[in-house]
Amino acid sequence: MAESGKVTSLGRRIALFGTSIALLGSVAIGGTALASSGHVARPASVPKLDIVGKGTFNCATVTGEVGYSPAIISGGKTKERVSIWFVASGCKPSSTTGAKPIPKTVVGSISFLDNFLNGCPQLSGPPLGTGILNLAYNFPQVPVTMIDPSVAPTAVVTDVGALWKIVGGVTDGSYVSPGFSALIKPNPIAPQSCGRGITSEYIIRGTLTNV
């Protein structure tokens, strides 16, 4: 066979899980490595230390996204789920308890069934909904020093003028706090509107308090 058409095997790995055998391997063709379908992604760094954050802190900057499934629209009366993702930065110890360590970023996510169905606009006196808020610190990627994530099992989302407010006690993990609060400002992504339907909004600004 000509050198240009030569196919070279780079090896195979056999992993035994119970009675199952998974074959992982790759081949180099024309100088390019092709991973097998069993390739496993790994973090860029392996954590060396795991700690539990203590105290509370505030964050001055929040951005993120809000998703609606299905789209919210004027006169909508269908069951609909709201999903919120955000990343916060500019964090400093609170004036009351302080915190250690202070993370560079906080990533949060929550989803809930909308009490107002898929109507638009989403203006509330009663809460928009209640869900489980999950918080992670200095992620992504997996940090060398991991700070345990946190959970607020009953976080309530309400509309406050032009902002949305998320409140709920952080009961487990790092930075346990009975007074967690977030303010976020969702903006529709053009050309979406209540008349046309809105599937997602971006969070242009916000703050976190008593994380």
Task: Give a structural overview.
There is one protein chain. The chain is mainly β. It folds into two domains: 3-35, no CATH class; 49-209. Helix content is 0%, strand content 56%. It is built from no helices and 16 strands. The protein has strands spanning 7-17, 20-29, 32-35, 49-51, 54-55, 57-72, 81-93, 99-100, 106-113, 129-137, 145-147, 150-160, 163-167, 172-173, 181-188, 198-209. The strands form four sheets. Strands 6-7-9-10-12-13-15-16 form an eight-stranded antiparallel β-barrel. It has a three-stranded antiparallel beta sheet with strand order 1-2-3, with no helix packed on it. The protein has a two-stranded parallel ribbon with strand order 4-11. The radius of gyration is 23 Å and the shape is globular. It starts with 6 loop residues before the first strand and ends with a strand.
Briefly say what this structure is:
The chain has 211 residues and is mainly β.
Task: Spell out the key features of this protein.
211 residues; eight-stranded antiparallel barrel; disordered N terminus; mainly beta
Whole-angstrom Rg = 23 Å
How many H/I helices?
0
CA-based shape: globular
| Spatial order of the strands forming the largest sheet | 6-7-9-10-12-13-15-16
How would you name the oligomeric state of the polypeptide chains in this document?
A: single chain
Fraction of residues in helices?
Answer: under 10%
Count of the separate structural domains: 2
Uncertain segments: 1-36
Q: Count all strands and give the number.
A: 16
Main sheet overview:
8 strands, antiparallel, barrel
User: What is the helix/strand order?
Assistant: EEEEEEEEEEEEEEEE
Please report the distance between the alpha carbons of the first and last residues.
65 Å
Q: Give the amount of beta strand, in percent.
A: over 45%
**Overall average residue pLDDT:** 83
Q: Which structural category fits the helices and strands?
A: mainly beta
